[in-house]
Amino acid sequence: MHDAENKLLGLRLAVAVDSSGCGGKKRKLHEGTRVPQNYQFCLDDKMFEFLRMREVMLKLDPKRQGLEDGKGLHLIHLLLISATAIDEKKLCLAADYLTDLFKNVSLNGDSIQRVAAYFADGLAARLLSRQSPFYSMIMKQPTPEEDFAAFTELYGASPYHQFAHFTANQAIIEAFEKEESYNNRTLHVIDFDVSYGFQWPSLIQSLSDKASSSKRIHLHITGFGRNSEELKENETRLVNFAKGCLNLDFKFEGFLTGTQPVCLKTKKNGTVAVNLMFYLHTLGSSSKIYETLKSVYSLNPSVVVLVEQEGSRNPKSFLSRFMESLHYFAAMFDSLDECLPADSLERLRIEKNQLGKEIKSMLNSDKDEQNHRRYERLESWKGRMESVGFKGFKLSSRSVSQAKLLLKINCHCSAAEFDHGAGGFKVFQRDSGRALSLGWQNRHLITASVWHCV
Predict the structure, then answer these.
(1) With left for phi above 0 and alpha for psi between -120 and 50, is residue 341 left, alpha or beta?
(2) Based on CB atoms within 10 Å of each CB, which residue in 75, 128, 275, 287 is the most buried?
């Protein structure tokens, strides 16, 4: 036996839950009750086996391996019964299922094998406590550099983020144009999650194209971010980009996430736009979302743009969260097959450091309060916005045309369609034209909506 395996066997696996399906008999282990030695050895042995199979899977030749016809359904079945066993706290049974899963999944296979590999990792992490070294190994986060690279590659390969950003920017520009007669040609954008700032160069360029030497435009972006270093990098990138745009006065101001938005200063009569781009779901609780929307309403913005993933992944119910996440990410992985070639290293990095990270975090969100997410459907977000006093309005024909053109330009590997058909990326007009969704086949992925204060 290899030294690494001896070391692995010598470590006690920390178990996350307290009952088991070993031997077909469910046994409740109360706090303070000593675990029977034969039970612990049985469980340790089974958990070691699925961890060993996971290592084998990770070391497979990166040559692409597809499943035989009908095997995809078997893989989905294994995922479902594994998740059910974990939810019912049948630990030994779940460990057996995970061993079978890791024999069949692959990070380099077809889309169902790849998405199943990350779900198997998320399920494996649920069998371990946060103190387990194997939990840390499975849930290891990408470095900031890896995260940035994966985001950049996804941005270039898929219309996912571009659709969100261009649709939001179009709504902001139209709000600015509507108030141009009295807003002193001033636009203040308040971005509650500026991320890497990729949304704003296209807005800067569009405003610069509208401006002239006699009619300069003033753009002020207030961005909230995760840390000071990232905010500084954003400022440097955007300021340098704006230097090449004539007749535009640009200012970027960064604040750490959590700063009270009521402290923000806005110019008199200027157009104020609030950008809620993949932000509200990160707040976790309904009360925090409500408080944030009330704060946004108090700013009396001219326009609020809301973009969120489509889904109903309630953090309180593991199985419902699992099922909804599986449907969603299966569509995302499938779409990447159409955007990038089979042997693409970019695809592997996107799936590992963006999508895979999110899958594992979602399945283990109840272990960490900070990782709670409230992914909800359009109807739920609509109810939340209206309860605070916002009213949705119909997106313009320019927004719709722009979305069509974006898919036509970007979807070089698939047939981009609009509203009808069965293949590729599609754009759906929803809620009587007050929302626009990007979908893969018939699955809505993200939805943009635009709001005014009543």
Answers:
(1) beta
(2) 275
Q: Strands, E, within 380-454: which ranges?
A: 390-392, 417-418, 425-430, 435-440, 443-453
What token pair was written down for 452?
Answer: 């005014």
Q: What is the DSSP string of 228-295?
A: HHHHHHHHHHHHHHHHTSTTEEEEEEEEETT--GGG----TT-EEEEEEES-GGGG-SHHHHHHHHHH
**Is the CB of residue 275 less than 8 Å from the CB of residue 173?**
no
| Contact yes or no for 25/42 (Cβ under 8 A) | no
Sorted by sequence, the CB contacts under 8 Å of residue 339 that are 6+ apart come out as 157, 158, 347, 411, 413, 414
User: Is-contact 86 16, C-beta < 8 A?
Assistant: no
Residue 15 has a pLDDT of 43
Helices (H) and strands (E) in the chain — how many of each? Answer: 16, 12
Q: Which string of DSSP letters, residue by residue, matches 335-370?
A: HHHHHS-TT-HHHHHHIIIIIHHHHHHHHTGGG-GG
Amino acid at 341: P
> How does residue 373 score in pLDDT terms, banded at 50, 70 and 90?
confident
What DSSP assignment string belongs to 162-228? HHHHHHHHHHHHHHHHHTTTTSTTEEEEEES--TT-TTHHHHHHHHHHH--SSS-EEEEEEEEES-H
CB 442 within 8 A of CB 328: no
The DSSP element (H or E) to which 28 belongs, if any, is strand 27-28
Count of C-beta atoms within a 10 Å radius of residue 84: 16
Identify the CA nearest to 223 among candidates 249, 198, 243: 198
Q: Residues 345-365: pLDDT tens digits?
A: 999 999 999 999 999 999 998
Find, among 427, 442, 349, the residue nearest to 167 by Cα: 427
Buried b (16+ CB within 10 A) or exposed e, 2-14: eeeeeebeeeebe
Cα dihedral 186, 192, 194, 198 sign: negative
Asked whether the beta carbons of 290 and 384 are under 8 A apart, the reply is: yes
Neighbours of 453 (CB within 10 A): 16
Q: How do residues 267-281 score in pLDDT, each as one tens digit?
A: 678 999 999 999 999
